[in-house]
Design a protein that fits this description.
2 domains; homodimer; alpha+beta; four-stranded mixed sheet
Chain lengths: 223, 223
């Protein structure tokens, strides 16, 4: 099997999948899709053949002469977990699985769309200077609710979002906290989330997946 | 086990879960959360204890003296499918499961957030008359991409999004088409999606889940 990840260094959805691939210790080819250059390479015909939604990430799986194209980070990560169960992304009990998926979706459909390039561009084109305020407000509110959800429902002794091992929820949390800082959200109000981020920071797969470590990251002075 | 669904008649995310519960033939108590009245009951303290994100749906599961609260439609539906496997929401092969989850997420995180009440209110407060244009543009683009994704990757002979039985993808598609019409998207451009909608319309569980069939739907003249 050959894996190829179509990714952008700063895309938080691509970041989640990079963490997943590194946790499963799966080698993959990195293919950069520049979301900024020339109005965005994601709109190119070749990328839209991979994903009509014109988004990253897309995981391209070559196996037995066939090619499978999976977009949407949740679909990619659930597929990875079904095909490569170790280490697991979900707890074994149905209640724990429900809680972890709920926290991941809280970010996936409840926060990230508010910092999406296309949304912010629409606002910026009509209300100069307001796009950042929009992102800050919604990402901030979402993280505040997430802090409560993670804090209140955790099994005792948890160091991650759910228990003492990383789960899908942590793969969503870490890139979203980065997004919060980027939009000027004061993340010091979220001690539980920051604790989880510190625990993840100890894990090699999380560090290797950071935006700055990607081949398409520009040099520091141009970020 | 007792199931209680906190729902709003016109919420497309609640609608997906209603279809899921009816497909699994699970009796449940319907608890209305009025998203409109008095600024929105979802912001009440009692509802935010159920879901800090202040959203519907929330599924409340009482079992063996314990209460489990699940929010986020994907987390609820995956839980339902793990606990009550018949009829299944996902195909059995990993590739098919990936495709179905991808299509469902395409709606869940890629389209629905653009017609979300809170987003539209933010825009409406600043740009009168533009919120509807925003929803129409993004929901329209998303459905156009979905038409292509459903059409191109279907197993031969499919009547639903994936094959000849309903899957998670159909539970997301039907409420989203309704949303498209509501925002003025010309859905006649999406013949594949309309075909799937017709196939779903033959199924009792889909009909019972429609907004107008819910106890909190206002009489027709006040909709």
């Amino acid at each position: 099997m050959n894996l190829r990840l179509h990714s952008y260094w700063r895309s938080s959805s691509s970041w989640r999948v990079r963490i997943g691939l590194h946790l499963k210790k799966l080698p993959f080819e990195y293919r950069a899709v520049d979301l900024v250059k020339g109005g965005g390479e994601q709109w190119s015909e070749s990328h839209r053949r991979r994903n009509p939604m014109a988004q990253v990430p897309v995981l391209e799986v070559e196996e037995g002469g066939r090619v499978l194209l999976i977009s949407q980070s949740m679909a990619i990560l659930e597929w990875l977990d079904e095909r490569f169960p170790d280490p697991p992304f979900l707890p074994r009990d149905p209640e724990g699985r429900a809680r972890v998926r709920m926290l991941a979706e809280h970010v996936n459909s409840g926060i990230q769309p508010y910092q999406n390039n296309a949304t912010l561009k629409w606002i910026r084109d009509r209300l100069r200077g307001e796009a950042e305020a929009f992102a800050r407000e919604f990402v901030g509110q979402g993280l505040e609710a997430l802090e409560q959800a993670v804090r209140e429902g955790r099994p005792p002794g948890s160091t991650f979002c759910h228990g003492t091992h990383q789960t899908l929820a942590d793969l969503y949390l870490v890139p979203q906290l980065f997004g919060g800082r980027r939009w000027g959200v004061d993340v010091s109000r979220f001690p539980t989330l920051l604790g989880v981020e510190r625990a993840c920071g100890e894990i090699d797969a999380f560090r290797k997946s950071e935006p700055e470590a990607q081949p398409d990251a520009p040099p520091p002075e141009r970020r």
